[in-house]
Write a sequence for this structure.
């Protein structure tokens, strides 16, 4: 049994994680929140107290931390007695925070793949470039490291594993579909860190097709999807973290990721990219000042956390698996629908942050109980999916399944 949680990152997802940890502090114990900007931590903690989210009296404390500093992070883990670290800071931090967890023996959870700020769209599979190189190190140290435990990656990985385990003898394709049918009312904004958001879409689009990596350009391939609740939505073939683990771990010949974008988003993105404003490479202005264009764009866009109060509508994120069972063609769609306003009313966040943050807390609770405390590095699809999905249902992200024309909760939950 593990107790006491250190949450690193005080953005929109961090807010969700802290609220959900507070709601479950009987299981998780003390809660500590760390960020370079401690004022953000204090605001999140204040919001927890305003909503009376703590299930029982307990520690809820803010800390200033540069999580790129491995020594400082390891010292904070020891100081707080944290046995579980939830990293929802920038994906540039992953390897540093993981190093601190290996040094101290704390369990590690993140929600997105590691990135080098100087590189975009590296050679696939992306997990092999950083995280998977440290598998042996985690196992030697007996450290549980759960990679990509957000929604996508994360919950969709569990959906894919559930589909393989329960509905098929052979799976030919996995298509992950991510639709945000909500509206924040701003001229232009991103739903999470603009720097990370844009980096996803400025390089090649890697998908796994016919057992090999296939490259396309962003917005080159689209498809209309008929989905529960949100209706017909256009989504574009996009590169994404979970393609790089599912393709290597589940033995499925086709794994693709599709994300919905409005025409307005595409137009603004295209102008910014064509002007060079999405470049991650530094340049020098006429006045001699060095700037990174992408960081300037991030600075002028709304903070994703600020979108929450006016956000309306729903998200639909799911996995369509197709293959064969009993000699017949078979397909199943496993999905969740989340509501932006409900997320705001409960934890003060918008729905995108909610879907990313709640699963990380579910993973922490399963580590705390011992069920997912595997003492090695794993992706979510390497773990039993049903305990995770059952817990998510209780935490506010219910799973539904469309199978043979019937839309129902997951049987056996």
């Amino acid at each position: 049994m593990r107790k006491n949680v250190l949450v690193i990152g005080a953005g929109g997802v961090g807010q969700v994680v802290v609220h959900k940890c507070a709601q479950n502090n009987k299981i998780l114990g003390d809660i500590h929140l760390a960020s370079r900007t401690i004022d953000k931590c204090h605001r999140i903690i204040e919001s927890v107290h305003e909503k009376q989210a703590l299930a029982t009296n307990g520690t809820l404390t803010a800390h200033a931390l540069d999580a790129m500093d491995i020594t400082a992070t390891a010292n904070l883990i020891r100081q707080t007695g944290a046995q579980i670290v939830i990293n929802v800071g920038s994906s540039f931090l992953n390897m540093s925070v993981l190093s601190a967890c290996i040094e101290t023996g704390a369990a590690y959870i993140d929600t997105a793949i590691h990135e080098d700020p100087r590189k975009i769209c590296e050679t696939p599979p992306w997990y092999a470039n950083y995280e998977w190189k440290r598998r042996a190190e985690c196992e030697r140290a007996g450290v549980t490291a759960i990679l990509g435990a957000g929604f996508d990656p994360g919950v969709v990985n569990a959906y894919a594993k559930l589909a393989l385990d329960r509905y098929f003898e052979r799976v030919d394709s996995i298509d992950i579909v991510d639709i945000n049918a909500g509206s924040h009312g701003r001229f232009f904004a991103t739903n999470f860190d603009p720097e990370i958001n844009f980096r996803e879409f400025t390089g090649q689009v890697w998908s796994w097709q016919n057992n090999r990596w296939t490259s396309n350009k962003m917005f080159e391939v689209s498809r209309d999807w008929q989905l529960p609740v949100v209706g017909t939505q256009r989504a574009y073939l996009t590169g994404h973290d979970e393609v790089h683990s599912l393709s290597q771990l589940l033995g499925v010949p086709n794994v693709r990721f599709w994300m919905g974008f409005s025409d307005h988003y595409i137009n603004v993105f295209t102008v910014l990219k064509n002007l060079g404003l999405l470049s991650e490479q530094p340049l020098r202005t006429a006045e001699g000042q060095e700037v990174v264009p992408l960081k300037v764009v991030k600075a002028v866009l709304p903070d994703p956390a600020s979108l929450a109060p006016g956000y309306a509508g729903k998200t639909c994120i799911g996995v369509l698996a197709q293959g064969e069972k009993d000699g017949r063609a078979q397909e199943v769609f496993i999905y969740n629908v989340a509501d932006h306003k409900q997320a705001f009313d409960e934890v003060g966040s918008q729905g995108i942050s909610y879907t990313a943050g709640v699963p990380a807390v579910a993973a922490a609770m399963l580590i705390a109980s011992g069920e997912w405390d595997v003492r090695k590095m794993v992706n979510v699809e390497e773990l039993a999916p049903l305990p995770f999905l059952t817990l998510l249902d209780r935490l506010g992200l219910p799973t539904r399944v469309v199978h043979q024309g019937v839309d129902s909760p997951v049987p056996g939950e």
Notes: The CA atoms of residues 191 and 304 lie 5 Å apart. The chain has a mean pLDDT of 95.
